[in-house]
Amino acid sequence: MAFPHRPDAPELPDFSMLKRLARDQLIYLLEQQHEVDKLYKVENKPALSSSEQLCFLVRPRIKNMRYIASLVNADKVAGRTRKYKVIFSPQKFYACEMVLEEEGIYGDVSCDEWAFSLLPLDVDLLSMELPEFFRDYFLEGDQRWINTVAQALHLLSTLYGPFPNCYGIGRCAKMAYELWRKLEEEEDGETKGRRPEIGHIFLLDRDVDFVTALCSQVVYEGLVDDTFRIKCGSVDFGPEVTSSDKSLKVLLNAEDKVFHEIRNEHFSNVFGFLSQKARNLQAQYDRRRGMDIKQMKNFVSQELKGLKQEHRLLSLHIGACESIMKKKTKQDFQELIKTEHALLEGFNIRESTSYIEEHIDRQVSPIESLRLMCLLSITENGLIPKDYRSLKTQYLQSYGPEHLLTFSNLRRAGLLTEQGPGDTLTAVESKVSKLVTDKAAGKITDAFSSLAKRSNFRAISKKLNLVCGTGMVRGVGGFIPLWSTFLGGNVLERRSWQGLDEVVRLLNCGDFAFTDMTKEDKASSESLRLILVVFLGGCTFSEISALRFLGREKGKREFIFLTTAVTNSARLMEAMSEVKA
Amino acid sequence: MDCYTANWNPLGDSAFYRKYELYSMDWDLKEELRDCLVAAAPYGGPIALLRNPWRKEKAASVRPVLDIYSASGMPLASLLWKSGPVVSLGWSAEEELLCVQEDGAVLVYGLHGDFRRHFSMGNEVLQNRVLDARIFHTEFGSGVAILTGAHRFTLSANVGDLKLRRMPEVPGLQSAPSCWTALCQDRVAHILLAVGPDLYLLDHAACSTVTPPGLAPGVSSFLQMAVSFTYRHLALFTDTGYIWMGTASLKEKLCEFNCNIRAAPKQMVWCSRPRSKERAVVVAWERRLMVVGDAPESIQFVLDEDSYLVPELDGVRIFSRSTHEFLHEVPAASEEIFKIASMAPGALLLEAQKEYEKESQKADEYLREIQELGQLTQAVQQCIEAAGHEHQPDMQKSLLRAASFGKCFLDRFPPDSFVRMCQDLRVLNAVRDYHIGIPLTYRKYRYKQLTIQVLLDRLVLRRLYPLAIQICEYLRLPEVQGVSRILAHWACYKVQQKDVSDEDVARAINQKLGDTPGVSYSDIAARAYGCGRTELAIKVWVCWSMSHAQGSRPLRAGTLTWVRARLGVFTVLLHLKNELNRGDFFMTLRNQPMALSLYRQFCKHQELETLKDLYNQDDNHQELGSFHIRASYAAEERIEGRVAALQTAADAFYKAKNEFAAKATEDQMRLLRLQRRLEDELGGQFLDLSLHDTVTTLILGGHNKRAEQLARDFRIPDKRLWWLKLTALADLEDWEELEKFSKSKKSPIGYLPFVEICIKQHNKYEAKKYASRVGPEQKVKALLLVGDVAQAADVAIEHRNEAELSLVLSHCTGATDGATADKIQRARAQAQKK
């Protein structure tokens, strides 16, 4: 079960190198270069430090710049002079310096960069921790982060050798890929001649598949994220989980043995597994009864600590499960799942719509309501005008008029749209299949013109058999993440998107699906079994676990993941929401 | 020390004046000075000569030459004068050369003869021509005063911020005044002029006659007048050879002197030191120089050559074809030390040090003498101060050595003054150097008149970047004030060198500047852009962003193209924003979708107004509407402002044909007004609640009628209203009202929610009331909720619904429900049989 030890699995690349790199860089930066002796969190309040030099380690956001400006200006008013250093991570943006200049403090601060972009969250998961990527790129059309992604890919290829086979789908994926190639070219073959460690790389845009991300998650790790919010690979379990009066911060990764075994499991299996585990543990404890002194000594010195640790973790996860259970029953979770399923399968649309309306009317949760609306819109290829108006009206009445802006955002991102005349499902389907043969098809699919952006979900789902009752039902209730089918073999085996042409067209990605193979086959068979999947705009734990499952299912393959951030439906919706400051 | 005081000349009893050579002039003048228009900038500034002026009536074909030299006579610039006849030359405080032409146009040149700009002194001047002009310095800057052919005066007190002022007419003035000058008092510029025996003072309102107090009789005309550097004192030279000296306000006489020379002097300037009691005037004739003051005798010098006087803050600079000299009052400290047979502590200390070097025991004697008087501290201070006033490094050194020697015998002498003096002298000696040619005195440098910043600026103006940087480094100035500023200037100068290729300039700039803090690349790029070198502007940016984006990686062509496409465009555009007018800028942006979206984002945070303009230009009404919506809750405080913002938003939405948003916005306007009224009438917090929350708050406050009214007004659907009321009443635990409400009509949401909410509030009794009314489909659920398992079982059996049966079964617990469980099992078995 524990896949890193699976005998037939290829060995994962050693990400601890990245960790060490980041740590050493940071220590060098802070201690040696800037002699930092105390760390504070950047919050919107005056800095209490009395030292002669302030050093800010920040993301290049305008908000942060203004905070720094306010600090510096406050110091100026108070007549004290300090040195200020701003270290941007992962890179500096010109707009930030503009702000510093406009605030009149550009001359007072000096700037630096710390190109740290890859945080290994787990043995198979790297995160860039850039949640803003999603909103910045997919809503605002800001392409600056693509450079960061390209740099990160470049770093990976210098560390782990070149990637012989590249695939991508989506506009952003294509840009990132091209830019990365540019960087490689400039490097003049520094990486050439190295044996590739990772055989394939897939670049995927989030907006190719919103559906998966919008569904509630049903695997344990996903549920923990939905319920407690996992931040940077760790989670704060509140008092209701720890069954004490304190909160506890727990790292969730492969090192937590209990978690590692249940993270990819459907929630309904988790309880059974945990109780089995509890029994095993008890049995191991019980062994000590029949021991003599020497054995006992051995047991205490070698095993007891591990058992205790496991015991502690077990009780934590059982607590978390209980908490999740409680929440599920309270919020009519079953009904929600039922509605979701109905939406995915495309039946009882009217009923689902009124369920959503009731959900809004009862003010159950603004984010959940929004999520359901988006899901409805995407699966139905836009809402029919009457529903579009009434749902929005209801939502505004429940949660205030500022959400007019939220709706405008969602519309721009293509998440919540209105069916135009002649946009009914059947019409679109026939039109689209006609377009597939039409050469001009690519022209109407400009990712930036949201009007032309249609999800065509139903057609895709029919093509790929995404919604199916049994078999490889992983990740999301009854729904196979789109990626799984892409990565499930077709593309890998054929080494092209061939055969998926129509689907790619339906995804509006005709222009942006690409493959790139190196001719020479230097890559060892070992490396060809390693596949790096890059998610631009974030991925959910469900998607990760579906792919982990896929790797196991197909055997002899191992997926590793690089994402701009780990996300979930709530985070996506929050990124799109406008809230009063 | 023997002849050290040889060039000291006593004036009266208390003061000495000395004249020493600064430089022997390097220039190779062909003409006599008197054939040229001459202007020398104060504070050791440059000298401008315009040869061959028009008054000499030479052949018109020969164009005059304008030469600019440093104070040591090093040529800085030389250009052919191609413009009209020049009446007067003068230097502004920023060391810009102002050339006043006969037609009233003033041409401004830089130190290196680069044309800066020009301005006119007005129509009146143009018509009547310029007769005479003066350039004077005020605390705001530099001014120009003009005497026109119609004997009227026009002046501007600050050429940087040109405001022409025409002075009132002098009654009965038929000919040009015999002499005149600009005066600056109480921050206002006046003109003082002499006509025959009368003196007139012109301010902008009136012309008044003034008489100097205590003026000797018999004066029929004033030949020359001089105002001191600080505008405090005035000297008048009459046709009787008599000199009157007094305050510039003409209220007090200081002294007078009769030199018995009736010829008009060529120049007369004040020679005094700030804070000194001595007043003296230097008067120059063709071959004679006279220093006169409050003493019966005057000091006389013979002038071998044509000379020109430049008034300075603490003395007078005198230059001629061969030499450049400085004449000033010997400062107190120097006088104390060097006066013959002086017993001042400083003098003794200097002597002691000399003896000490000769290894003579006399050193001890002198030292003892000072110490007995307890004046050692004073002695050291004197030596330090005197060192500052010496021009020769040797003498400076020996004085400082003496001070340092004296310091050894003091327990606690703060070292700052000594250290500072050493630093200052080092800097001063450096700029006094022949090649640099800025003969600054210590006093000018130290006493607020000229700070180190200004000095650095002057060096930069002279393009002496390395020296400026060395000084910064030597004085350990903060980078931002020092090195970076100079580098930025250097870069700005560099981009103007048209003969160097863009690539080289950009690289040179990038190499030198690196990431020195405080250098504004936008200024440099702007300068390049200003010179029409757009390509270079972009390159500068690109180099810079490259060095910042990728550490020290060398430039590659590929990256360059890329950066220009991705980053360069944006940065350059952002910077061009300040250069181009807004319309052009937006038009340029429109062709750069990527830059546009970046710029929008930037504006969203930083320049909201610009964002609005941007949308306006594009006729993007949808975004414009959104913009105003955001403004309605983020920017506006007052309710009226918010409603107004919403109204604008609604209009925009209509234009965008987004009826839905427009209607929603209008609803929000109504709601806002209503909430305001509710707050006024009922108190409490209503503003900014959503409609739903507003109604809820009303019900919770017991204002049911109003709640109903609101629901009707805003057409809240029945379902929502029922949910809302149900929740609110249950929160209030107003069971009576809830029951009344439930009976008001048939519930559009069924009765299960009633049961649920009662149970949630732990009121089983109330819950049971509603359970009976729940429709058949949900009855089982309701019954289970209220805990009536038996009845639930009955209903489920009646429905023959397998799912319901198992649901009831799962609720059967232990012994109590044993019978029910059996019943269900039986019913199931029966159902299966069938």
TrEMBL record, chain A:
Its main location: cytoplasm. GO terms for cellular component: clathrin-coated vesicle; late endosome membrane; lysosomal membrane. The keyword Protein transport applies. Coiled coil: none annotated. InterPro entries: Sec-1-like_dom1, Sec-1-like_dom3a, Sec1-like, Sec1-like_dom2, Sec1-like_sf, VPS33_dom3b. It holds the Pfam family Sec1. GO terms for biological process: protein transport; vesicle-mediated transport. Keywords: Protein transport, Transport. It is found in: Cytoplasmic vesicle, Clathrin-coated vesicle; Late endosome membrane; Lysosome membrane. Belongs to the STXBP/unc-18/SEC1 family. This is VPS33B late endosome and lysosome associated. It comes from Aotus nancymaae (Ma's night monkey).
From TrEMBL, chain B:
Residues 4-420 form the Vps16 N-terminal domain. GO terms for cellular component: CORVET complex; early endosome; HOPS complex; late endosome membrane; lysosomal membrane. The keyword Protein transport applies. It is found in: Late endosome membrane; Lysosome membrane. GO terms for biological process: endosomal transport; intracellular protein transport; vacuole fusion, non-autophagic. It is a peripheral membrane protein. Residues 519-830 form the Vps16 C-terminal domain. Plays a role in vesicle-mediated protein trafficking to lysosomal compartments including the endocytic membrane transport and autophagic pathways. Believed to act as a core component of the putative HOPS and CORVET endosomal tethering complexes. This is Vacuolar protein sorting-associated protein 16 homolog. It comes from Aotus nancymaae (Ma's night monkey).
